[in-house]
# Entry
Amino acid sequence: MSKLAIFGGKPVRSKNQKLATWPISDKKDGELVKKITLSNRWSFDGEYEWKFAEAFTKYQGANYGLCCANGTVGIQLALEALGIGAYDEVIVPGMTWQATAAACLDVNAVPVLTDIEPDSWNLDLDAVEANITPKTKAVIVVHLYGSTTDLDRLQKICKKHKLFLIEDCAHQHGTFWKGKGVGSIGDVSSWSFQESKVLSCGEGGFNMCKTKDIFYKIYSLRNCGRPYPASPAVFGLKKPVGMETTLQSGNFRLTEWQAAILLGGLERLDKQVKFRDANAIYLNSLLAKIPGIKPMIRRPQITQQSYFNFAFRIDPEELKVTNSQFCSALNAELSLGDAFEPPYEPLNACGLYKPLTKKRHQLNDKYWKAIDPKQYNLPICTEAHTRSGVVVHHVMLMNPRSVMDQVAEAVKKVVDNIAEVRKIKAGGGRKYRPLAV
Ligand SMILES: Cc1ncc(COP(=O)(O)O)c(C=O)c1O
# Structure
């Protein structure tokens, strides 16, 4: 047995070995940015914004789509467009980036934190059904990291209970379920183009809409309440009938420069998704052979899987270590700082999800009580975050196959030396990152 790198042994990967980096751009992107800079069209409703909106919507197979400022307001716009507001209950997963639940608070709805499946970390649909009440108006499904829940069953549940289905697709640009793009399945979907995402322009967001009425509504909500002008005519849409009046709203728009970067990214997206997917399948096949290591599930309906993060689980009973101890040893073997880390904090104990710190949420005592995250018990989310979950950013999957071999070799070395890993001081799990979410 060779000595672990964390205790001074030779690491599996030397820090001088180059790895892929993210985000990526090319010369064409730079030229388009320059062209826009020298033009007099910088803001919203420009040529490149709509060119991107139509192309991305078509790629995911949705009916209508439009850009917005970021993935947080994308969820807020989706909720508002569906008429969801004060005191309405919205089912959200207990383990997600805080924005999914925070957006519900921003429309004065009640996010109902719901536990996840242990092997996909996506919504547990039995828990969803158990949390439905007469006040429930919608389910927000988050296609988290690199897995999905059973989207056929989820659609049936929503239909049966007359609930809207909102897809938070921030993690999975390029995922297809039975050949149909995620984001085209629910009533509305929301996307993030934040720097860390697989399609990015630094900051940015998007909504896909099942009907043209939802599209018109979101157009208006993202643009200070102005009605859709039918110019430029996109998706073959004419002037809206019955939706020409103005609404109360704010500015949630995106610029032409961001659209330019997105157009470049979209051209590269499918090839990159396929490359990562093939590497993930390969890496999972290696990890599955290591005792105490459990890959995440991939449902057979998935025809292409996109990965915001690659995830796997350790068996803390068998290995008798926590995920944070495991990650410390693994990062040292791969000379990677803190690249491998536990998944998101559960929202009932999350440093960045604190609904009761905001005066705006103090509608009345009943609402205040209803949004208190401490009332929820989320055992699977907690287990994933504090004991068994390990995630790494998708850029890891953009490396050659030989790097997947190194990752598996490093995992195996850590498992082979697990008695030593137990001596590592257990950390407190994943803490929020100031930049890359
Ligand atoms: C699942 C999920 N939803 C929503 C968001 C919010 O997106 P944005 O950062 O663009 O506001 C993120 C961002 O990381 C996310 O991971």
Q: What stands out?
A: The domain at 5-22+268-348+380-421 is CATH 3.90.1150.10 (Aspartate Aminotransferase, domain 1).
